[in-house]
Amino acid sequence: MTLALPMAFALRTAWAQGDRGLLEWVRSGVERDQSGNVSIVFGLPGDLAREVLLPATRADSLPDGYMPTDLASAAANGVPSSGRQLLRTLILDDTRNLVQAAQNDGQQLYVGSGFRSQAYQVDVFAAQVARWGDEDVANRYSARPGHSQHQLGTTIDFTTDFRNFRTSEAPAWLRDNAYWFGFVLPYTAAASSKTGYVDEPWHARWVGHPLASRLHTAGYLDWTDLDADDVVAMVHAEATSSAQPGLDPP
Ligand code: DAL
Ligand code: ZN
Question: 143 in ligand 1 pocket by Cβ < 6 Å?
C-alpha cells in the first residue's frame, strides 16, 4: 500500500480540522479497484476488514448472534491462557508474538479472557449487575450482550502473573508495544467519558498492524474527545461504502 501522506501526522491534525479532515485520513487507508469496490483497508483484505472492524461499543451492537468462524484454542496453539480461551486463528500468531515479546522484556502476560459468545456475555453482564446493583453502573465495567468486543474473537484481556495488573509494569508495556502486534487499547483513562467504560488497560482489540500503528503514532492513547473505536467505525463505514472516494465533490 502506498500512501501519499505521512498518515500519523495527518491524523493528529485531521481531528482539529473537523470531520472532513478525519474522513480524508480514513479514506487514504482504503484502496479501491477501478470499479470503486474496496479491495484493501489499512492492509487488510476488504471482506476481512468489514468483519474485524465491525463497530462494537457501548452504543453500537454487533449483528445479532455474530460469531467468527475460525475460533481456535489459545493454549493448544502455544498462547498462554487462563483456562479454555478461544481466539480467532487470524490473531494467534500476533498474540503469541506479543506474549513472547513481553516475556523478553520481563512481563509475563497471558490471555485472561478471549472470545465470549453473546450468550456468555448475558451471564457476564448479569454478574456485574448483581455485583453493582444497577445496570447503568454495571455497564461502566461490562458490555451489554451484543456489545462486547470479546464477541469478535479478536479482543483479549491480557493478565499477568502479578496480583495487581494496574500497578504492575504490564499496562505501560502494552501501551508502548501492543500496536506492533496489531492491537489497540480502546478503553483508555483519557477517553473514559467518551467510551462510557472505566479504563481497562488490559483490554486489547486487534485491528491489524497498519491501523494500530498509525493510531499509536497519532497519540490515540491520550485522546479525550475521540477514541480508537470512533476511527474504527469510520474506517468500517468507508470499507462498506460503495462510493468512490472523491474528496472534492464538483
Ligand atoms: N469489559 C468490557 C467493556 C466488555 O465487557 O467487553
Ligand atoms: Zn475486555
Answer: yes
**Nearest residue to 164 (alpha-carbon basis) of 198, 201, 116:** 201
Cα dihedral across residues 72, 98, 65, 54: positive or negative: negative
pLDDT class of 13 with cuts at 50, 70, 90: low
- Residues near ion ligand 2 (CB < 5 Å) are 157, 203
Q: Which CATH number covers residue 100?
A: 3.30.1380.10
> Model's pTM, two decimal places?
0.92
**Residue bearing the CA closest to ligand 1, atom 2:** 142
Residue 248 above 80 pLDDT?
A: no
Name, in order, each residue with C-beta under 8 angstroms of 83's C-beta and a sequence gap of 6 or more.
none
State pLDDT tens for residues 167-184.
999 999 999 999 999 999
Whether residue 144 is contained in a domain is answered as: no
| Residue 114 reports pLDDT greater than 80 | yes
Ligand 1 atom closest to Cα of residue 124: 5
Say if residues 205 and 151 touch (Cβ distance below 8 Å).
no
Q: Which ligand has the shortest distance to the CA of 152? A: 1
pLDDT value at 11 more than 70:
no
Atom of ligand 1 nearest to the CA of 150: 6
Is residue 136 in some structural domain?
no
- What domain count does the chain have? 1
Dihedrals φ, ψ of 156, to 5°? -135, 135
Quick check: 14 pLDDT over 70?
no
Name the residue at shortest CA distance from atom 6 of ligand 1.
148
Domain span at residue 164? Answer: 7-61+69-115+153-239
Cβ atoms 42, 210 nearer than 8 A: yes
Taking the CA of residue 143 as reference, the ligand 1 atom at the shortest distance is: 5
